[in-house]
Design brief:
Elements: E1 2-3, H1 7-18, E2 23-29, E3 39-44, H2 48-56, E4 74-77, H3 79-88, H4 92-105
Antiparallel strand pairs: 1-2, 2-3, 3-4
Helix pairs in contact: 3-4
């Protein structure tokens, strides 16, 4: 279940994908299969070859791409891998903002 996501963030992610960019979208997420994780970052691109090459730099296998018929195929980044990749990509701030928001509600 996804939550903590603003419509504008989702639309911006889709726009970047439509333009052929590697796009990042971080949001809260709960899934019984991954009880230790409460966020996910979706990294998508319209060009699946480009997306697979991007993922390869981080040890992600092309078989792990979530293929979507609507054109918004993506990798799901979770846990330590999510933090590591976001830090390498200069995108860690997105995750830290979510964590701050979560802490302020507690």
């Amino acid at each position: 279940m996804a939550f903590g996501l603003k419509r504008g963030e989702l639309l911006n992610w889709k726009k970047k994908i439509d333009e052929g960019e590697i796009a990042f979208l971080t949001h809260f997420w709960l899934d019984d299969r991954f009880p230790q994780c409460n966020t996910v970052t979706k990294v998508g691109c319209k060009d699946l070859k480009q997306l697979a090459e991007w993922g390869k730099r981080y040890g992600l296998k092309k078989e792990w791409i979530h293929h979507r018929a609507d054109g918004y195929s993506h990798f799901d980044l979770l846990g330590d891998k999510e933090v590591f990749i976001l830090k390498q990509e200069g995108m860690l701030e997105n995750l830290l903002k979510l964590k701050k928001r979560e802490e302020s509600r507690s």
